[in-house]
Specification:
By secondary structure, the protein is mainly alpha-helical. The protein has one domain (about 1-179). Helices cover about 85% and strands about 0% of the residues. The chain is built from 9 helices and no strands. The protein has helices at about 1-10, 10-35, 35-40, 45-70, 75-80, 85-95, 95-110, 120-145, 155-179. Helix 1 runs antiparallel to helix 2 (about 10-35) and helix 2 packs antiparallel against helix 8. The radius of gyration is 17 Å and the shape is globular. The chain starts with a helix and ends with a helix. The model has no long low-confidence stretch (mean pLDDT about 80).
Length: about 180
């Protein structure tokens, strides 16, 4: 969401630094997911609490995002200007990559499409996740920049990421408490 917003705001360099930071954090998260796949997927308590943490983090980031649209502080202005710092902070706070890579890795292994039995293959796979994340986020940035001229910069546009994160956080809470 952030790279789309930055691309629409024509902050390409900030968005690319953000994408790089996300890719840097993606590596250890993917490694954790692959290395601890059996432990994490076999413990319902861990899976259940990971969902709660995800809901809390999405909600907090959404509220902070909406708050900074209304009243930007000096810290939020610095984070807005530094895509890398913002990318590192938001990526570290968002552990949703771990369950994603657990599920995807388990599926790919089940299908026989990957073999991560050696250290070299494991790190090649994990490095590919980081490179892929950077490439995809860069593509989103460049595509958003192309359509930015047709969208006026307005407050609602800046609020969309925060609203989406609040929505995702609400879904996480509902799933945690009702299912």
């Amino acid at each position: 969401m952030m790279v789309l917003q930055l691309g629409l705001e024509r902050k390409i360099n900030v968005a690319l630094r953000f994408a790089l930071a996300v890719a840097v954090v993606e590596y250890p998260y993917a490694w954790i997911a692959v290395e601890f796949e059996h432990v994490i997927t076999s413990s319902p308590v861990v899976v259940h609490n990971l969902q709660l943490w995800g809901a809390i983090i999405m909600t907090v980031i959404g509220v902070v995002s909406l708050w900074t649209v209304r009243k930007p502080s000096t810290i939020s202005v610095k984070l807005q200007q530094s895509g890398f710092r913002r990318g590192i902070i938001l990526s570290i706070l968002n552990p949703q990559a771990i369950p994603f890579w657990i599920a995807l890795t388990a599926y790919l292994k089940l299908q026989g499409w990957i073999d991560i039995s050696t250290t070299w293959r494991l790190h090649s796979y994990i490095f590919g996740t980081s490179v892929g994340a950077f490439a995809l986020l860069s593509l989103f940035t460049l595509m958003a920049n192309r359509v930015a001229s047709s969208i006026n910069d307005n407050r609602l546009l800046r609020m969309i990421p925060g609203l989406v994160l609040l929505f995702l956080g609400a879904i996480g809470f509902i799933r945690y408490f009702l299912f």
